[in-house]
Amino acid sequence: MIRRTQGRIDLMLEDHHHEAWHAPPLPKLKPFSGTGQLLGCPVPRLVIGSSDNAAEPSSISDPVIRPKTQEENGDSALPTSPVEVDSSQPVTQLQIRLTDGTK
């Protein structure tokens, strides 16, 4: 700084020691404001049951998806061994919000 001013610095001070100090107002924050980002595409409507009871989709944007059964997937039973978690590794929390705002 001294090199830029060639050795001369003007410093102007005002005496405010007799005034009470007030903290500056905090900025008003709006947490989670703005728009969110969707991952993938909107979730299609699910119809569970036989194809006789299922209604036809009203348009291409409203498809009907029927989940496969365990027999169709080739799964005969659910896994019997519990998931092992290494407690020495870092962890995180994941919160999923649906389009209606529920968790």
UniProtKB/TrEMBL annotation:
InterPro entries: NSFL1C_SEP_dom_sf
One GO cellular component, as annotated: cytosol
Biased segments, Polar residues type: 50-61, 86-96
Gene3D superfamilies on file: Phosphatidylinositol 3-kinase Catalytic Subunit, Chain A, domain 1 (3.10.20.90)
Organism: Protopolystoma xenopodis
SUPFAM superfamilies to which the protein is assigned, alphabetical: NSFL1 (p97 ATPase) cofactor p47, SEP domain (SSF102848)
GO biological process: autophagosome assembly; Golgi organization; membrane fusion; nuclear membrane reassembly; proteasome-mediated ubiquitin-dependent protein catabolic process
Protein name: Uncharacterized protein
Top-level taxonomic group: Eukaryota
Single GO MF descriptor: ubiquitin binding
Region entry Disordered, spans: 49-103
